[in-house]
């Protein structure tokens, strides 16, 4: 499991995360949502070692991540994707996955950790990566340069690279950002497909339709603190969450009524609901 234990992060005088504690259980998809600037991505960046922790602890099982460099955090079982794609554009899709695994020429001592040596190690690594690409529908693009793929396909390559090492914790930072409806539906299918009973998954996302359709638990952040936790139904009914998103309880109803009254000017369909759509 992944545990945030009284975690605080300050950037100078600004406290981006203020004494946050919660646990992400294995086998579940836990979404972390909140208005822009709530501290969602800061949590991910601290867990992954991109930001230091001002105080508190972040643990995968009993391993404290906040004291470790990035490569040891990865060895502890944490993997992530990025809000802005970070692939090796000049390498093939297959190579983008292979680079995560132990290279065959690094020496027999390291290769022996996987019980492999020489060409056998190279073949096993390729088979492992191809199996993940096949699972995500990317096998036909294995030898294509990652930078030549469409944006939605690149998002899937990032997901493939994040799971090829079979992590204990998977952090997905806005995986649906920039995707159209069809691509988001395919992403939803693949996220559900890669979940395992022993992997904790954290989903940072603004697409509330996606969040509500796949999340087992939702944590709402606001101004660096945890505002609410619960199921989708519990979060949807929480007036404090409505206030954080739209200004005050009942604002959703008022905005929809105002929109219907001005439909000729704003061209909004009366059947549309503004619930859970970020501005």
From TrEMBL:
<dbReference type="InterPro" id="IPR032823">
    <property type="entry name" value="BCA_ABC_TP_C"/>
</dbReference>
<dbReference type="GO" id="GO:0015808">
    <property type="term" value="P:L-alanine transport"/>
</dbReference>
<dbReference type="GO" id="GO:1903805">
    <property type="term" value="P:L-valine import across plasma membrane"/>
</dbReference>
<dbReference type="GO" id="GO:1903806">
    <property type="term" value="P:L-isoleucine import across plasma membrane"/>
</dbReference>
<keyword id="KW-0547">Nucleotide-binding</keyword>
<dbReference type="Pfam" id="PF12399">
    <property type="entry name" value="BCA_ABC_TP_C"/>
</dbReference>
<protein>
    <submittedName>
        <fullName>ABC transporter ATP-binding protein</fullName>
    </submittedName>
</protein>
<dbReference type="GO" id="GO:0016887">
    <property type="term" value="F:ATP hydrolysis activity"/>
</dbReference>
<comment type="similarity">
    <text>Belongs to the ABC transporter superfamily.</text>
</comment>
<dbReference type="Pfam" id="PF00005">
    <property type="entry name" value="ABC_tran"/>
</dbReference>
<dbReference type="GO" id="GO:0005304">
    <property type="term" value="F:L-valine transmembrane transporter activity"/>
</dbReference>
<dbReference type="GO" id="GO:0015188">
    <property type="term" value="F:L-isoleucine transmembrane transporter activity"/>
</dbReference>
<dbReference type="GO" id="GO:0042941">
    <property type="term" value="P:D-alanine transmembrane transport"/>
</dbReference>
<dbReference type="InterPro" id="IPR051120">
    <property type="entry name" value="ABC_AA/LPS_Transport"/>
</dbReference>
<dbReference type="InterPro" id="IPR003439">
    <property type="entry name" value="ABC_transporter-like_ATP-bd"/>
</dbReference>
<dbReference type="InterPro" id="IPR017871">
    <property type="entry name" value="ABC_transporter-like_CS"/>
</dbReference>
<dbReference type="InterPro" id="IPR027417">
    <property type="entry name" value="P-loop_NTPase"/>
</dbReference>
<dbReference type="GO" id="GO:0015192">
    <property type="term" value="F:L-phenylalanine transmembrane transporter activity"/>
</dbReference>
<keyword id="KW-0813">Transport</keyword>
<feature type="domain" description="ABC transporter">
    <location>
        <begin position="2"/>
        <end position="248"/>
    </location>
</feature>
<dbReference type="InterPro" id="IPR003593">
    <property type="entry name" value="AAA+_ATPase"/>
</dbReference>
<dbReference type="GO" id="GO:0005524">
    <property type="term" value="F:ATP binding"/>
</dbReference>
<keyword id="KW-0029">Amino-acid transport</keyword>
<dbReference type="GO" id="GO:0005886">
    <property type="term" value="C:plasma membrane"/>
</dbReference>
<keyword id="KW-0067">ATP-binding</keyword>
């Amino acid at each position: 499991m992944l545990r945030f234990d009284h975690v605080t992060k300050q950037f100078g005088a600004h406290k981006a995360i203020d004494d946050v504690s919660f646990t992400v259980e294995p086998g579940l998809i836990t979404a972390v949502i909140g208005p822009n600037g709530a501290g969602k991505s800061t949590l991910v960046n601290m867990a992954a070692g991109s930001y230091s922790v001002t105080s508190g602890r972040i643990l995968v099982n009993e391993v404290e991540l906040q004291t470790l460099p990035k490569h040891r955090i990865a060895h502890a079982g944490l993997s992530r994707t990025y809000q802005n794609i970070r692939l090796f554009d000049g390498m093939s899709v297959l190579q983008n996955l292979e680079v995560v695994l132990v290279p065959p020429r690094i020496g027999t001592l390291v290769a022996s950790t996987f019980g492999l040596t020489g060409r056998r190690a190279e073949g096993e690594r390729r088979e492992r990566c191809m199996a993940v690409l096949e699972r995500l529908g990317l096998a036909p693009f294995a030898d294509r340069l990652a930078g030549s793929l469409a944006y939605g396909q690149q998002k899937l390559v990032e997901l493939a690279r994040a799971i090829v090492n079979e992590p204990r914790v998977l952090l997905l930072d806005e995986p649906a950002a920039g995707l159209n409806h069809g691509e988001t539906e395919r992403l939803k299918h693949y996220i559900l497909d890669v979940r395992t009973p022993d992997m904790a998954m954290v989903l940072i996302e603004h697409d509330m339709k996606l969040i509500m359709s796949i999340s087992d638990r939702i944590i709402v952040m606001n101004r660096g603190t945890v505002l609410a936790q619960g199921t989708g139904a519990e979060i949807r009914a929480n007036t404090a969450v409505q206030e954080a998103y739209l200004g005050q309880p009942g604002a959703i109803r008022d905005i929809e009524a105002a929109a219907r009254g001005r439909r000729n000017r704003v061209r909004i369909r009366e059947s549309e609901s503004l619930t859970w759509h970020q501005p």
